[in-house]
Please model this.
Amino acid sequence: MTNGLYRLIYFSRNRVGRSSEDFEQAVRNILSVARRKNAQAGVTGALMYNSGCFVQILEGERANVQKIYELVRRDERHSDVTLLGFEAVAERGFGHWSMAFVGAKESDLARHGVIAEESGFDPSRMSGQAIFEFLHRLAHEREEKGEKEEEMDSESQQAFG
Model:
């Protein structure tokens, strides 16, 4: 059915700090390393964060996706790493991105009915499918607006400023 293509969805709690320079640098490093390693491994996906948690989707061959997930589980910047979904899929949802960054703009969260952490945003109460649909919609909306990964990176810089 899927030629070994899998999608893994997880969230984790941020252990770096909230809105500090350390947190800003950590997110930039995560994006930089993820894009490089994901491209090498044939893995695609998306990352969203707020000051309290990361939500990530990984897509690719089962072994490659599992390897990346295990690295995240051992990464000291994450705690309470929680798997929300891991299943075979027929096609990629984020095939254009080694790691789409959709950030945590309040306007996006409000527009799509997701509440910011300060108001009780809790990815543990969302299904993996709901998170996939939300991040997929955000990434594709930004693509339609002409935003590229580099522009999404500049948003990460603005989100911290």
Remarks:
- Residues 5-160 form a domain with the Alpha-Beta Plaits fold (CATH 3.30.70.100).
